[in-house]
Write a structure and sequence with these properties.
By secondary structure, this protein is α+β, with helices and mostly antiparallel strands. The protein has eight helices and twelve strands. Strands 1-6-7-8-9-10 form a six-stranded antiparallel β-sheet. Strands 2-12-3-11 form a four-stranded mixed β-sheet. The protein is globular, with a radius of gyration of 19 Å.
């Protein structure tokens, strides 16, 4: 037991040393920072054909519900990255100048996959909402009620004792996603994040199915270099750092739509964007991966959780 703890502490120390070597002293971008209109126009123009091809894939309603379909989706997105590699390289060059951060070859490859993969999820959500005519002004807005921080499963069980799981959703968000920090996730992968990515509200469209949209202030990539560059891309292309995740509720089932994490952990470098169903009465872990891929199974039992509740709203 002592040896395992010692190795874990050594791993964290090595992660800290590695980050201190490769990360320049740069602040993360915020939505209050001024945007260069010229850079914004260039990024949007370069990404336009990428967006068009991603929309073709998304329109096929590819359901990523197992490893085979996940691999197929990754292959399709990889083809897009290869086809538009120069566009993505030109975008990263703009981001480098805007942030004064120079990612190495590995960071550039990761950033390309993050940009393309996360845009795929955004487009899938957008298409679904258009198909169902789920409009922002029609959503019921709910603020999560904070129940406390659970450092372990025993804390969680005590906190939730007596809670009616049928009429209430329990939402648990990894503590570093909210408060920031450095450490190792459930698979011993290192992360260093700013935090401030609070799940601040939930949009609900009652119906059959009832659709829930989790809304976060931001998302932090576990690699600070990639995070700074990805923040800059999102502000230049989307005009916001906010992140969202959709799931449906029908009867006794929850359907995660393009936001299931498939067992991967908080510091996994890429989103999975999977589709899966689970029992409705379960706790939902809302940041199993940093990009807010989620599940009713906790992929990071070694990390504390901010525990919240929202009501189950029916038609």
């Amino acid at each position: 037991m002592g040896k395992r703890i010692g190795m874990r502490a050594l791993s964290i120390l090595l992660a800290v040393m590695l980050v201190s070597v490769v990360v320049p002293a740069v602040s993360a971008w915020t939505e209050n920072d001024p945007i260069c209109i010229e850079d914004q126009a260039k990024v949007q123009g370069l990404f336009e054909p990428v967006d068009e091809d991603i929309r073709v894939i998304a329109a096929e309603n590819l359901v990523v519900s197992d490893r085979a379909s996940s691999v197929r989706c990754s292959e399709l997105l990889s083809e897009i990255m290869e086809k538009y590699d120069q566009n993505l390289e030109d975008i990263i060059s703009i981001l480098e100048k805007a942030t004064d951060v120079q990612p190495d070859e590995k960071d550039r490859t990761v950033l390309k996959e993050v940009i393309v993969g996360e845009h795929f999820r955004r487009v899938c959500d957008e298409i679904l909402m258009e198909q169902r005519d789920l409009r922002e002004e029609d959503a019921v807005i709910v603020q999560p009620q904070i129940l406390g921080v659970a450092d372990c499963q025993e804390d969680m069980d005590k906190m939730l004792a007596g809670t009616d799981r049928w009429d209430t959703f329990i939402l648990a968000q990894c503590s570093p996603d909210v408060y920031g920090g450095i450490g190792l996730d459930g698979a011993n992968l290192p992360y260093l994040v700013n935090g401030g990515n609070n799940l601040y509200e939930v949009g609900v469209w009652p119906g059959s199915p009832t659709t829930y949209q989790l809304r976060y202030y931001d998302e932090d990539h576990p690699s600070p270099v990639t995070d700074i560059e990805y923040d800059a891309f999102r502000l230049l292309y989307y005009g916001t750092l906010e992140d969202r995740a959709l799931f449906d509720v029908t009867g006794s089932q929850i359907y995660f739509r393009y936001c299931w994490n498939d067992g991967y952990t908080y510091a996994w470098l890429y989103g999975i964007h999977g589709y899966q169903y689970r029992p409705k009465t379960s706790v939902i872990y809302t940041s199993n991966i940093w990009n807010h891929d989620i599940d009713t199974y906790n992929s990071n039992p070694n990390i504390g959780q901010l525990v919240m509740s929202v009501p189950y709203i029916q038609q």
